[in-house]
């Protein structure tokens, strides 16, 4: 279990680095496009599409980080009203349903990649494979983060978040 958590932590670290690079690229792209368009009257024709693709990648990669940190929206009223043993079962069932959903969507995303490989984007001279790759990759990253969480929920009965503080306490 420790190896799995270590692996998920390393993946999260490098995913975070990737997201930071994408945010920086997006910020630079939008800033340059705005200055060129409104300052010089000449815009970058491809900036809107490139920005859209960068945002898609940021969203799918960032979703795995949000999952790891428990930042996704959830309704906890029912869960909190249940006794602790029932809460454990409910959390485990919910996590397994989520994990199943991630696996199915990642699999379908991989299948979809074959169909878009030959298609090119409207403005940028790139294959649509690259924007669509964000879907299965983002879901695979979410699976990597969720598997240790499900195992931990089963072992200790809580949706514990992996953190350095928690690692020191255990």
Write the layout of secondary structure elements.
Layout: H1 2-40, H2 47-68, H3 77-81, H4 84-116, H5 129-132, H6 134-156, H7 164-169
Helix pairs in contact: 1-2, 1-6, 2-6, 4-6
Number of strands: 0
Rounded mean pLDDT is 88
What fraction of residues sit in β-strands? under 5%
Q: What proportion of the residues is helical, as a percent range?
A: over 70%
Number of helices: 7
The topology string of helices and strands comes to: HHHHHHH
The number of distinct structural domains comes to 1
Unreliable stretches: 160-170
Radius of gyration (CA) equals: 20 Å
Give the key terms.
170 residues; mainly alpha; 78% helix; elongated; disordered C terminus
Question: What do you see in this structure?
Answer:
By secondary structure, the protein is mainly alpha-helical. It has one domain (2-169). Helices cover 78% and strands 0% of the residues. Mean pLDDT is 88; it is low at 160-170. It starts with a helix and ends with a helix. It is elongated and about 65 Å long.
Question: Could you provide a short overview of the structure?
Answer:
By secondary structure, the protein is an all-alpha fold.
